[in-house]
Amino acid sequence: MVSRVIPVDPFDLVVFGATGDLARRKILPGLYRRFWAGQMPADSAIIGAARSEMTVEAFRAVVREAIDEHVSAEKRDAATIDAFLDRVDYVTIDAKGEAGWPSLKAEMRKGMVRAFYFSVAPSLFGDLAERLHKHGIADAQSRIVVEKPFGHDLDSARALNATLARHFDEHQIYRIDHYLGKETVQNLMAVRFANILFEPLWNAQYVDHVQITVAETVSVEGRGAYYDRSGAMRDMVQNHIMQLLCLIAMEPPYHFDPDAVRDEKLKVIRALDPVQPQDIVRGQYRAGGGQAGYVDHSENPDSTTESYIALKVHVSNWRWKGTPFYLRTGKRLRARASEIAITFKEPPHSIFDDEKGWRENVLVIRLQPDEGMNLKVMIKEPGPGGMRLVQVPLDMSFAEALGENGTDIPDAYERLIMDVIRGNQTLFMRGDEVEAAWAWTDPVIRGWEDRGDRPQGYDPGSSGPEDALMLMHRDGRRWREIRD
């Protein structure tokens, strides 16, 4: 099977903050890969905009360097790179002033899709939105892309949404969460809703529990001051993990339509029970392995911010009542791994005498480092000597089924940016969805702050604090091993 590349309409894409880290690592290399694949029309234009004084030639040199560093060698050929750079321009912009805006307006072409990527601090969103309209650069069909964080709490999220709403309608605002652009996350919806196999079992009657793990080996070094104001709960659970939880727990939408999908995700968030103190474990990595600890990286020896968190949560609706969802994420852990594991219940009665080797059926959805799925089932162990059971995985990765193109999975940012150009908001968060997530998150954070709880130390390269193991053990369950 060969994957199809469907070109989008010609567009003008303005990247604010074009000289920043995100633009250099993800946005600009991703756009080049879409150009290389034939999805980005040759008459499209990419306009970098930032406060740095820079010529077009100097900015193109920055883009070339980003391509060399972040695009694989087989996709880099001189002719294609040169053709791509011909579509790149640059404007020096003062986000809080008037300099550069007339020049940006002059770059806009009639009849093109206009998109504006706000790869800047949220404090600049309002200034950019206001000036885009003041100078007649954005119109009713324009789209803006905003990066997280979407606020620091419910009040700030509401204020941010109100700021954007003064200048853009909700259908023009694309709140990007790159986890939703991952191939396997989208295939989760396909597996659930395009096949009869799993959906009848996708409920509390048959599912024992669900584990969602996002483990990272990196520290917060270099961004410790920012992270110390955020922590794992705000940085990962409120957005990335919440979105994964919603896709697992949501009801089938009436149609694969942006608002239909997001309506069902919103229902899940609103059905989440408050989290009890005994169902929360917070951790902070210590120094070890010749590297500094969290308090050193945050430059705050009295920090009570968590670099690790584990939660047991419940969705109170007919489908999931009584089925726990265990969530965990952390820095400086044993391996970089993100996965969702749906563990099904044991059969009500076993016909086999030897049950010592019994294991539950588990559907594992791997998000990173190797995107794919497998289903663990029980079979007879080969050989004579009776009916001995052994658990084996049925590989459901898509690489073999899709041939060579199955291994060439586009980066999440590539897919999401192309969705912006298409005007498809299915994989982007809606304003009320963001606010509902904060409405659930804020009391959890306020609870441990009021109690004066401090995170537990854990060794770098481990699976996290010891109490996180007890969170599962007291329920007669175990965390899945964190490994590459």
UniProtKB/TrEMBL annotation:
One GO cellular component term: cytosol
Which pathway does it serve?
Carbohydrate degradation; pentose phosphate pathway; D-ribulose 5-phosphate from D-glucose 6-phosphate (oxidative stage): step 1/3
Can you give the residue ranges of the Glucose-6-phosphate dehydrogenase C-terminal domain?
189-480
| Protein name as it appears in the record | Glucose-6-phosphate 1-dehydrogenase
Q: Which GO terms describe its molecular function?
A: glucose-6-phosphate dehydrogenase activity; NADP binding
Q: What class of enzyme is it?
A: oxidoreductase
| GO BP, sorted A to Z | glucose metabolic process; pentose-phosphate shunt, oxidative branch
Family (UniProt): Belongs to the glucose-6-phosphate dehydrogenase family.
Q: Which segments constitute the Glucose-6-phosphate dehydrogenase NAD-binding domain?
A: 14-187
Q: Which residues bind substrate?
A: H178, K182, E216, D235, K331
Q: Which InterPro entries match?
A: G6P_DH (IPR001282), G6P_DH_AS (IPR019796), G6P_DH_C (IPR022675), G6P_DH_NAD-bd (IPR022674), NAD(P)-bd_dom_sf (IPR036291)
Active site per database record? H240
Which PROSITE patterns would you find in this protein's record?
A: G6P_DEHYDROGENASE (PS00069)
Role this protein plays:
Catalyzes the oxidation of glucose 6-phosphate to 6-phosphogluconolactone.
Known catalysed reaction(s)?
D-glucose 6-phosphate + NADP(+) = 6-phospho-D-glucono-1,5-lactone + NADPH + H(+)
Q: Which UniProt keywords apply?
A: Carbohydrate metabolism, Glucose metabolism, NADP, Oxidoreductase
Q: What is its EC number?
A: 1.1.1.49
Q: Which residues bind NADP(+)?
A: G17, A18, T19, G20, D21, L22, A23, R24, R51, K148
State the Pfam families in the record: G6PD_C, G6PD_N
Origin superkingdom = Bacteria
Q: Which organism is it from?
A: Aliigemmobacter aestuarii
* PANTHER family according to UniProt: GLUCOSE-6-PHOSPHATE 1-DEHYDROGENASE, GLUCOSE-6-PHOSPHATE 1-DEHYDROGENASE G6PD
